[in-house]
Design goal:
19% strand, four-stranded parallel β-sheet, 3 domains, Rossmann fold, Cobalt-precorrin-4 Transmethylase, domain 1, alpha/beta, single chain
Length: 285
């Protein structure tokens, strides 16, 4: 019989923003007489999305597939102003599930732009959230993901800059960017718009010590915040596995005596964490 000890992160799983988004969509599906559409995944959780689709949520990849006068869901990652204005020409029934932390980042970027600052967004330029933030600057922001990106734009930073972050970024990355800006002697102001939930989840993993042999991170492979948790675990030289569903757990990851830390991204349903614990405890060797 194995001797596996499991520790579950207190803050693992659904965050406030995800709970809110799911609640708003489920209410719409229950009460609306019109078809409910979401452009792209509401959250980065394939299992949850399939459940919502079973309840008649229609996920579309192209706005051309949206039927006029239907219900349109603005997903939790936000939407660009250009796309929002386009949707407003097709329907008045818009339900905005944008995460409040994403809204904060959007507003901070917009305010920096109004103040005449050069906006810099720390994040992934291809992520829908970053695109939504950039649209609030008239798509004039510089998007950087590492100090090397700053080298490419340093000659364009002649005026004061305003820094905001993709909400799921690591604090260590923001600190890296700030340190590089100081070396470049750039005048700047920072609004740390990293989500508090993401920060807590990351801090919990980063503070793990030698008492943990294995980290299992549950969450969508396309989830930025979940991916960051796995990256932090690997950076600590702890054996780390990122899975989407509890059933993805493999017996070969475990030894006769192992201490496991179980955590999950903000879009992961608590049931998946419970299932994962049950699967691990059932392992025998």
């Amino acid at each position: 019989m194995n001797n596996i000890k499991i520790k579950i992160a207190e803050n693992a799983g659904f965050c406030f923003g995800v709970k809110r988004a799911i609640g708003l969509v489920e209410d719409a599906l229950k009460n609306s007489k019109e078809q409910v559409y979401c452009w792209g995944d509401l959250i980065h959780n394939p299992v949850m999305i399939k459940n919502l689709e079973k309840k008649s949520l229609k996920i579309i990849d192209n706005l051309k597939d949206f039927k006029e006068n239907s219900v349109f869901i603005v997903r939790s990652h936000g939407i660009t102003l250009e796309d929002l204005n386009l949707i407003k020409t097709k329907t008045n029934n818009i339900i905005d599930t944008t995460c409040p932390f994403v809204k904060k980042a959007q507003n901070c970027a917009e305010n920096f732009k109004k103040q005449g600052l050069q906006v810099i967004i720390v994040g992934d330029k291809n992520h829908v959230e970053v695109k939504s933030i950039n649209s609030r600057t008239g798509n004039q922001a510089f998007i950087v993901n590492n100090p090397k990106d700053l080298d490419k734009i340093k000659n364009k930073l002649s005026r004061k800059s305003g820094i905001v972050c993709q909400t799921t970024q690591k604090n260590s990355k923001l600190e890296e960017i700030i340190a590089s800006l100081k070396k470049l002697k750039v005048d700047f102001e920072v609004q740390n718009t990293i989500c508090l939930d993401a920060t807590k989840k990351q801090k919990t993993v980063s503070e793990l010590g030698n008492e943990i042999d294995l980290i299992i991170v549950i969450g969508g492979f396309h989830s930025s915040n979940t991916t960051k948790l796995a990256e932090i675990g690997k950076s600590k030289k702890i054996k780390t596995f990122h899975i989407e569903k509890a059933k993805d757990i493999s017996k070969k990851w475990f030894s006769d005596s192992v201490k496991v830390f179980l955590t999950a991204g903000a879009s992961t349903h608590p049931n998946e964490i419970i299932k994962a614990k049950k699967i691990i405890k059932s392992l025998t060797f």
